[in-house]
Amino acid sequence: MATVKNFLKLKKDDSFKKTPFCEADFLVLTALSYADFKNSLYFDDKSINGFVPLNVFAKNTVINKLKKNYLTIGESFNQFLYSFFSAGRYKDVKVGLFCDRFSLENNMQFFALTYEVDDKYIIVFRGTDNTITGRKEDLNMALMDNIPGQKMSRDYVREVLKKIKSKIYIAGHSKGGNLAYYSFLNLNKREKMKVIKVYNYDGPGFKNDKYDYSEYKDKLVKFVPEDDVFGMIFDTSHLREIVPSTRFNMAAHDLLTWKLDRKTKYTTLIRLNSLTIYSSCFNTTFNTWYYDNDPKDSKILITFIFKIVETNNIMTLGALFKDLIFAGDAYYKEIENYDEESKKKIKSMIKKLLKMYFDNLLKSKKNDKKSQK
Predict the structure, then answer these.
(1) Rounded to 5 degrees, what angle do the CA atoms 103, 105, 106 make?
(2) Can you give the C-alpha Rg of the chain in angstroms?
(3) 4-275, what's its fold?
(4) What is the pTM of this model?
(5) N or C: which end of the chain has fewer CB within 10 A?
(6) CA distance 207 to 233
(7) pLDDT tens digit string along 342-352?
(8) Where are the domains of the chain?
(9) CA neighbor of 248 nearest in space, from 238, 261, 235, 258
(10) Does residue 125 contact residue 112 with C-beta atoms inside 8 Å?
(11) For the segment 311-343, what is each residue's pLDDT rounded down to a tens digit?
């Protein structure tokens, strides 16, 4: 059950000479991108145009400000912040080149930063924050070919490369993982050569994906939890590492729940061979269903389901399906906002989606039993 929490406890005061910068450190710094740096006094011209030591944030009054927003990871994120800033391991790490863009009109929430760790530079794109705008941007990723943040991510990487004149790493979680891939894949060849690795932590793929991942398979690293819901959506790269989590379904999306390998003293993530049957069936079902429908119809149902999940903070597929199957309170309240024709269409699409899922699940279970005999 070892997670980032165990890594920070065990390696709290290890220098990077004693325990070299590792896979778990990338996970830690990616999770830290959710801190509300903008709410700190140190979000100023110096940190926007250059770098400041991370330890300037290691004061309780500052940490309290950092944790007030962006609590997509819950109370565990607050504990993570205190553990991080009390760890001597990161005392010499610098952070800066903050880029914050927010637009209600364009449903855009974009935040990026860069870490300086000895001779390494690591760009991290923040995933969805706790604002309604951030949630709507998640929705738009399933409905639009491009979102504003994607182009901004590429431009941000280019600006960083101009400033530091050094090779870089790129990382991001959730929507940030999608931006990490997008930014790299849309650089020119010369710029791509300056990128060492790109870490995509459970970020969804691209609608109408036309990228050729094979040429850069040594640079692209994607992690998804075994009971994944988000990262497999529209994913066509097949370059993924499957990892275990202490949670399930949507809750497994949380970076802080991913299990680290005790054999490597928690410096690397554990690898698994396959997704759970439920995750595999959901993603096969969703991707097939999506491309089999008229885009306008897909938009209606995805918007409908999105509002149910958002309004009721649904965290498991079981809870979502139960609400859809038995027309629960959330379903009933939301569907009343539609005209009769739309209601009929939504009900028909839900029936089709659920049937596809349970047919795939039954088929997978039968195949699983055959393989065990």
Answers:
(1) 70
(2) 21
(3) Rossmann fold (3.40.50)
(4) 0.90
(5) C
(6) 9
(7) 899 999 999 99
(8) 4-275, 280-365
(9) 258
(10) yes
(11) 776 667 777 888 788 877 778 888 988 999 989
